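[agent] plan:
  1. take the single chain provided in the ticket
  2. run structure prediction with default settings
  3. attach structure tokens to the ticket
  4. add a short note for the reviewer (M.T.)
[agent] executing step 1
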Amino acid sequence: MVNPSLILASASPRRRELLGRIGIEPLAINAADIDEIPLKGEVPRTYAVRMAREKAIAAASSEAFVLAGDTVVACGRRILPKAEDETAARECLKLLSGRRHRVLSAVALRTPSGNLHERLSETIVRFKCLSAAEIESYIAGGEWSGKAGGYAIQGSAEGLIAWISGSHSGVMGLPLYETRSLLAAAGFDLA
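[agent] step 2 finished; step 3 output follows
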């Protein structure tokens, strides 16, 4: 029996590239347009899972699996923004300098029959103490643009990270172990 195809509910080229690492090419990209404002009092873990779930539901198809993800950078109970300008990126980096933070990467899969499956990856990351010059150099490179917490681990920020415990691909935007497990459990043919 041939499996229905996979729709990726994300316009992120990084998520598409990560899927390719486990041998999956989505049939289509259907970026879900949802309200991504956290609810009052919502904690980072709940927020990440809710965002992935809502994206999978918004892009639902009765003929394909729909895979959605969301990555949240959290410092304590605080959800850091996707940096849209240099000021936001700078503030995120100052906050993260020399501290541990969590990266929560949620994955949701909606099957063609409408069942919803979810997984969550939690990774702990610690930046070195960043000097003002290091922050400004990173800002000048532009890799922070649109990135949760104001950094992209797959770029030069990796050289500023003292250690990481958890999923490197989860910090990039799609935890591959959890994604592969989710697909296999839902009956998606990974062979």
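[agent] step 4 note for reviewer: The mean pLDDT is 94.
[agent] ticket updated
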